[in-house]
Amino acid sequence: LLVEELSEVHLTLKYLIEFIKNTNTALYRMQNNRFSVADLVNMVGTGITIYEVVEQESGEVLHKIYDEGTSGASPQIITLDQPLAAAKVVVEGNTEKHITDEPSEGRFVVSRLFKMGYNKLWVINFHPDSSQEKALLLTIPNEELNTREIMRVIHSLCLLMQENDHLKKGDS
Amino acid sequence: MPVKLNFRSKLILNARAQSLQSHQDLKSSITVRAPFTEEKQEQIEKNVDELRKKHAKLLAK
Q1: For the whole model, what pTM was predicted?
Q2: Of A62 and B54, the one with more pLDDT
Q3: Is A55 on the interface with B (CB under 8 A)?
Q4: A140 and B4: CB-CB below 8 Å?
Q5: Percent with pLDDT over 90 in chain A
Q6: Chain B interface disruption, residue of A107, A130, A138, most B CBs within 10 A
Q7: Using the beta-carbon criterion (under 8 Å), do B8 and A136 form an inter-chain contact?
Q8: Shortest Cα–Cα distance, A142 to chain B (Å)
Q9: Between the CA of residue A124 and those of A28, A63, A99, A114, B33, what are the distances in Å?
């Protein structure tokens, strides 16, 4: 039993070191104006979609603004009455809580709400499947890792990405 | 003898358990809201009754 536990700690450390290594790469890429959501995908080892909460006459809806490393089948617009983790996490309005869903066997969606710059709200969805051990460890809180600091790193990089994109739009 | 699970299987079970919990939470929130909806419906029916009575009185004059 002890050997098994040691093996799990060993694997957790291995994936955390990979995460730190890929985060360093992402930071260097940011310095060289080459950073994108693909770097976040590389860090957590699974596909990511990002939605922005947009106010419309009919109420709040989610607009997809980034989709990287997935099949691309996620809807462009999600209304808050839809039975999807991304909608539920906005309705609950808690940035500390995540919602996990398994829309088809072995395919998971983990949704988190993030407060962004310029009074925006983003929902970041991680799409791990049952073959992606590293992503299951890093994106869904578990016995080995509560994932809080992983999400803080993702959040801070997204804040920088949003700021960079905003500055680029301002320049054009 | 219990079946030994490897690391990945444990993580999958954890993900699945959290997914089921999210569905349970959603069901609970719907159940909690149900009495509120019934109360609202009763109030609407009362209001309609009162309006009917007022309307009948006006017609009787």
Answers
A1: 0.82
A2: A62
A3: no
A4: no
A5: 90
A6: A130
A7: yes
A8: 7
A9: 23, 12, 11, 8, 28
